[in-house]
Design a protein that fits this description.
By secondary structure, the chain is an alpha+beta fold. Helix content is 49%, strand content 12%. It is built from 8 helices and 4 strands, in the order βααααβααβααβ. α2 (27-50) crosses α4 (77-90), α3 (58-67) crosses α4 (77-90) and α7 (160-170) packs antiparallel against α8 (179-201).
């Protein structure tokens, strides 16, 4: 089954602040949480329509995260928690954009990572290191991984240009089967870096995005 990789830029600390914050949410956080709950309910309706049962509904998973836990049993609970966390991230960032559709994204980007590593791209900048890194380390409790691999990845915006430069330096040396997708990554990361730099240069105090969040769905 094909899986869609999408991404958004957002405020890492703002997203994490919702997790475990039940009982001490600000008025604004409670307002935004209401929208997260609506999105979680819509997400669950779509899963029900498809006949998918993860043993934990997305609205239930969202409430667990706000309470500060992710301890539901079942091998598919990790997918419900990842989907719920994605709704939190979506409300702390920009509109999502698609990176691409892949039948086996972890395998494909693992092979691309092998190519880049062989030509000197360091760990941390390899696509598989951030596309499938899992959720932010700052989450104050354990979040189980989805059964088919992490559905969320993170890359600091401060490293986007570093990744672009590293990829361009070895682009002509990698297998041609990977060039198109590497070029796509270069294009997307460079655009997000330029937007980040441009907004910071304008001195907007409200702009606090510092992370590219990746979502693997399907």
């Amino acid at each position: 089954m094909s899986r869609i990789i999408s991404y958004t830029t957002g405020d890492r600390a703002e997203a994490v602040a919702y997790l475990g914050a039940a009982g001490r949410l600000t008025d604004e956080q409670r307002r935004v949480l209401g929208m997260m709950r609506e999105r979680a309910e819509a997400s669950q309706r779509e899963l029900d329509r498809q006949g998918l049962d993860w043993g934990l509904t997305v609205p239930e998973a969202l409430e667990h995260l706000i309470e500060g836990r992710a301890d539901a049993p079942g091998e598919y609970a990790g997918k419900a928690y990842a989907r719920a966390l994605q709704h939190v991230i979506d409300h702390c960032g920009s509109d999502p954009c698609d990176l691409g559709v892949y039948s086996r994204p972890a395998t494909f980007f693992g092979l691309l990572g092998d190519q880049l590593r062989q030509h000197g791209v360091p760990a941390g900048l390899l696509p598989d290191d951030y596309l499938f890194s899992g959720p932010p380390d700052e989450i104050p409790f354990h979040l189980p991984c989805a059964i088919d691999g992490p559905d969320i990845g993170v890359l600091p915006l401060a490293r986007a240009k570093e990744a672009v430069d590293a990829y361009r330096a070895v682009r002509d040396a990698i297998d041609g089967d990977f060039v198109h997708d590497l070029d796509l990554l270069i294009e997307k990361l460079e655009f997000e870096h330029e937007e980040w730099e441009s907004t910071k240069a304008r001195g907007y105090d409200w702009y606090t995005h510092d992370t590219i969040f990746f979502s693997i769905d399907g």
